[in-house]
Design a protein that fits this description.
45% helix, two-stranded antiparallel sheet, 6 strands, 2 helices, 104 residues, single chain, alpha+beta, elongated, two-stranded antiparallel ribbon
């Protein structure tokens, strides 16, 4: 602990001693991380259910002889399992609920 300019003691994690209790200067910030990760997981879960996966185009150089060059484009599909989508959705909802309960 090191004393601040105001005489309050400060921990290394940004919390300050006020009376007999440690107080975070921005208490809503500690709750926001769980809520934001939860919202991200909910979005990924919904994306997985709606699209079922995603695809991308891959270019490969097939022939390269002097000035002649040939490429081939192949479309790759990456499926997203509905089980993984469901797990992400449930985990996201759990994190949002946990984040809001902690802030109250």
């Amino acid at each position: 602990m090191r004393p601040s300019r105001t005489g309050a003691h400060c921990r290394g994690n940004g919390m300050f001693m006020v009376g007999q209790a440690w107080v975070h200067p921005f208490p809503e910030a500690s709750m926001k991380v769980a809520t934001l990760v939860g919202i991200l997981l909910i979005g990924l879960g919904i994306f997985g259910f709606v699209t079922g996966g995603f695809s991308f185009t891959k270019r490969e150089k097939v022939l390269d002889v002097g000035p002649i060059e040939a490429t081939a484009e192949t479309e790759e599909n990456v499926p997203i399992s509905p089980i993984l989508s469901g797990i992400a959705l449930v985990a996201g909802i759990g994190l949002v609920i946990a984040g809001t309960r902690r802030s109250v």
